[in-house]
C-alpha cells in the first residue's frame, strides 16, 4: 500500500457508494513536506502524540475541512479502526501496524449525493445550491452568502425546499436531507449515543438534542419527555455551549454528522433484532410462474384468513393483531404483493390498475393452491386490492375488513408531514416515484422510523401511547425492513398507481366489506375518506372509529375481530 494514500472504505452499505472513508498515515509522514491527504501536519502530530500518551483506542476529533469547515471524525489506531467499522471485511487493503487512521466524511461524494437528493425532489438549481450550502454551514445567513443569494431570498427558497420534503423547520430539513443520503444497508442503525460520548451529555440532554434536531419545538420536547419547558430551555443552552453551536439548525448539522458516524460504526451480534411473530414461510407459484411468499402464523386448527399489508409496509403482521385473530379461532396468513418482500415483481408493463388486478389475482391463486373456496380477509389499507378482488372473484370473499382505506393520492387534501409531501410529489411527478422512494427508504434505520412514526402520531393520544411501546415499534419496523434490502419494486408501482389511477368506478354488491376509518388518521382526512369510499362502495359497511389513528391494527384489533364475526352474508345497511 502506498504511504499516505487514503483508503476508500465502504462502511455504510452492502453495495453502492459510502459517505465515509478511512485515511491512513504512518509516523514518518507527519514530519514535514506537503500533506498528501489534506490534513494539517500539526493536526496529525497532535493525534500521534495522543495515541502514544493515552490509553484510548479511538476518540472523536474535529479538523477544519477547507470547503466544508469544522468536520467531526473518529481517530484511532489500525486495530481499533478495524473493530469499530461496520463491516471490516470491506477494507480491501490491510491497515499497517503503527499507523493512525481517521474515519471521516467523503465530502465530495456527500455534496454529489445532496445535489442528487435535491434534484430528485424537484428542486431548482438555485434551491439546490442553497440547500447544499445550508448543510455545509448549518446557518441561513452563511448559506445565503455561499449560494450568492440575498438573505430574504434564501429564506423564501428554503421555505420551498421544506415544503417539497415535508420538513417542519430548518433543522428538520437538514436532518431529513442529511440522513436521506446515508447508505445504511439492511443492518446498520443510527444512534445519538456518540454525541453523548463526545461531549459528555446526559441521557436527557442527548434526548433533547435529538428531538430538536428532528424538528421538534421546545413545547413538543417538554411534552414528550414529561418535563417543564423551562427545563428544556435550560438544558438546550447547556447543549449549545457543549457542542459549540448557536442555533437549532447548526445543532442538527452536527447531529447528522454523529448519526452518520454511528451508522458507519454500528456492530451487530448476528441475530435478528426485530423478529417477526412465530410463523412458517409459505412459497407458492402464481399462474404466470412468479413466486408468491407468505407467512402462516397458525394454528393449523384455525380458520384460514388472509392479511394484506399496507402500501407502506410488507407482509409481517404485528403481534397484537395476530394474537387477537388467533384467540378468536383464526389462522392468519399474510402474503407479500408483487414486488414486495419475498414475492416476485410484476412484469415490467404491469402498471396502474393492471398492478392492482395482478395483486388480486395472486390472492385467487393462493386460495386455489390451498383449496380454499371462500376466505375472510383483513387489510391494513390496500383497499384498491380488495376492490380489484371483488370485481374479479366476488364469490371468494366471505368477509373483508379494511382498516384506514387510502383514497387515491389525487383525492387526498391532507398536506402536512413527510408522507403527505411524498404523496404530493408522486402526484406531481409520478415518473420520479422510484427516485424519491430510493431516497426515502435507504436510511430507514430503526431510530429514523421511530422518530417519523412518533411525530406522525402526535395529536392522536391512542397512537402516541401505542407506538411509545418498544415492542409495538419493533413490530412496525419489522414490516419495513425489506425496503432497506432494496425490495422497492412493489412499493414504487403501488405508490405510482395511487398517484395516477384516480377514483375507482362505483361497485355494487359489496355488503361483505367493512371499512374502519380512524377519526384521528394522520395521513388522510377521515371525513374525506368516508365520503370517498361511500361513493366507491355504496353497499359496504363504513364506520368511523373514535379515538383511533393510523395504527388501528395495534390499538383496536378487537374491532377487527368483531367486524369479522358479523353476519356478512345478509345485506345490512351501511353504518
Brief sketch in words of this structure:
This protein is α/β, with parallel strands linked by helices.
Structure description:
There is one protein chain. With 575 residues, the chain is of the alpha/beta class. Among the domains are: 20-105, no CATH class; 110-166, no CATH class; 280-413 and 484-564, Rossmann fold (3-Layer(aba) Sandwich), CATH 3.40.50. Helices cover 46% and strands 13% of the residues. The chain contains 25 helices and twelve strands. The protein has helices spanning 41-53, 78-84, 107-120, 125-137, 140-147, 151-165, 170-180, 193-199, 203-213, 218-225, 229-243, 248-265, 319-327, 353-370, 383-392, 418-428, 433-441, 446-457, 461-467, 470-478, 481-484, 489-500, 526-536, 552-555, 557-564, and strands at residues 20-25, 58-65, 69-77, 100-105, 280-285, 291-296, 303-308, 330-335, 375-380, 397-403, 513-518, 541-545. It has an eight-stranded mixed sheet, with helices on both faces. It has a four-stranded antiparallel sheet with strand order 1-4-3-2. Strand 11, helix 23 and strand 12 (541-545) form a beta-alpha-beta unit. The protein is elongated and about 80 Å long. It starts with 19 loop residues before the first strand and ends in an 11-residue tail after the last helix. Residues 1-16, 30-36 and 567-575 have low confidence and may be disordered.
Amino acid at each position: 500500500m502506498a504511504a499516505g494514500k487514503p483508503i476508500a472504505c465502504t462502511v455504510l452499505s452492502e453495495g453502492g457508494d459510502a459517505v465515509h472513508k478511512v485515511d491512513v498515515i504512518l509516523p514518518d509522514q507527519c514530519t514535514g513536506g506537503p500533506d498528501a491527504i489534506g490534513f494539517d501536519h500539526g493536526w496529525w502530530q497532535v493525534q500521534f502524540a495522543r495515541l502514544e500518551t493515552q490509553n484510548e483506542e479511538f476518540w472523536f476529533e474535529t479538523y477544519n475541512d477547507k470547503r466544508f469547515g469544522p468536520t467531526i471524525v473518529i481517530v484511532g489506531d489500525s486495530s481499533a479502526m478495524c473493530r469499530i467499522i461496520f463491516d471490516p471485511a470491506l477494507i480491501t487493503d490491510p491497515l499497517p501496524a503503527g499507523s493512525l487512521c481517521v474515519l471521516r466524511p467523503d465530502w465530495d461524494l456527500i455534496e454529489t449525493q445532496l445535489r442528487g437528493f435535491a434534484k430528485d425532489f424537484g428542486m431548482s438549481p438555485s434551491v439546490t445550491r442553497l440547500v447544499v450550502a445550508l448543510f455545509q454551514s448549518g446557518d441561513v445567513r452563511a448559506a445565503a452568502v455561499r449560494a450568492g443569494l440575498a438573505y430574504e431570498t434564501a429564506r423564501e427558497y428554503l421555505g420551498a425546499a421544506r415544503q417539497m420534503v415535508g420538513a417542519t423547520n430548518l433543522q428538520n430539513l437538514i436532518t431529513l436531507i442529511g440522513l436521506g443520503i446515508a447508505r445504511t444497508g439492511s443492518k446498520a442503525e443510527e444512534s445519538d449515543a456518540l454525541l453523548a460520548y463526545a461531549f459528555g451529555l446526559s441521557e436527557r440532554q442527548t434526548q433533547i438534542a435529538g428531538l430538536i434536531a428532528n424538528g421538534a419545538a421546545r413545547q413538543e420536547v417538554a411534552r414528550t419527555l414529561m418535563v417543564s419547558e423551562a427545563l428544556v430551555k435550560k438544558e438546550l443552552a447547556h447543549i449549545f455551549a457543549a457542542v459549540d453551536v448557536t442555533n437549532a439548525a447548526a445543532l442538527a448539522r452536527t447531529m447528522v454528522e454523529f448519526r452518520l458516524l454511528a451508522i458507519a460504526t454500528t456492530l451487530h451480534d448476528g441475530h435478528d433484532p426485530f423478529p417477526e411473530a412465530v410463523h412458517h414461510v409459505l412459497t407458492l407459484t402464481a399462474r404466470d410462474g412468479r413466486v408468491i411468499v407468505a407467512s402462516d402464523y397458525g394454528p393449523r386448527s384455525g380458520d384460514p384468513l388472509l392479511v394484506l399489508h399496507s402500501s407502506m409496509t410488507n407482509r409481517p403482521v404485528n403481534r397484537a393483531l395476530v394474537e387477537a385473530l388467533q384467540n378468536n379461532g383464526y389462522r392468519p396468513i399474510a402474503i407479500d404483493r408483487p414486488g414486495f418482500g419475498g414475492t416476485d415483481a410484476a412484469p415490467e408493463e404491469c402498471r396502474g390498475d393492471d398492478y392492482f388486478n395482478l395483486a388480486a389475482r395472486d390472492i385467487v391463486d393462493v386460495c386455489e393452491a390451498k383449496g380454499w373456496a371462500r376466505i375472510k380477509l383483513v387489510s391494513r389499507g390496500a383497499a384498491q386490492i380488495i376492490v380489484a378482488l371483488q370485481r374479479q372473484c366476488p364469490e371468494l370473499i366471505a368477509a373483508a375488513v379494511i382498516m384506514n382505506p387510502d383514497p387515491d393520492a389525487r383525492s387526498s387534501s391532507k398536506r402536512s408531514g413527510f408522507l403527505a409531501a411524498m404523496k404530493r410529489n408522486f402526484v406531481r411527478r409520478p415518473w420520479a416515484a422510484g427516485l424519491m422512494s430510493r431516497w426515502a427508504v435507504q436510511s430507514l434505520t430503526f431510530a429514523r422510523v421511530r422518530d417519523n412514526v412518533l411525530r406522525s402520531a402526535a395529536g392522536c393520544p391512542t397512537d402516541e401511547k401505542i407506538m411509545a411501546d418498544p415492542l409495538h415499534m419493533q413490530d412496525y419496523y419489522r414490516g419495513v425492513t425489506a425496503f432497506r434490502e432494496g425490495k422497492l419494486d412493489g412499493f414504487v408501482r403501488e405508490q405510482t398507481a395511487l398517484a395516477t389511477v384516480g377514483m375507482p368506478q362505483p361497485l355494487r354488491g359489496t355488503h361483505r366489506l367493512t371499512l374502519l376509518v380512524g377519526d384521528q388518521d394522520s395521513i388522510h382526512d377521515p371525513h374525506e375518506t368516508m365520503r370517498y369510499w361511500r361513493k366507491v362502495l355504496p353497499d359496504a359497511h363504513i364506520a368511523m372509529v373514535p379515538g383511533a389513528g393510523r395504527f388501528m391494527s395495534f390499538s383496536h384489533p378487537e374491532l377487527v375481530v368483531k367486524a369479522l364475526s358479523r353476519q356478512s352474508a345478509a345485506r345490512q345497511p351501511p353504518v
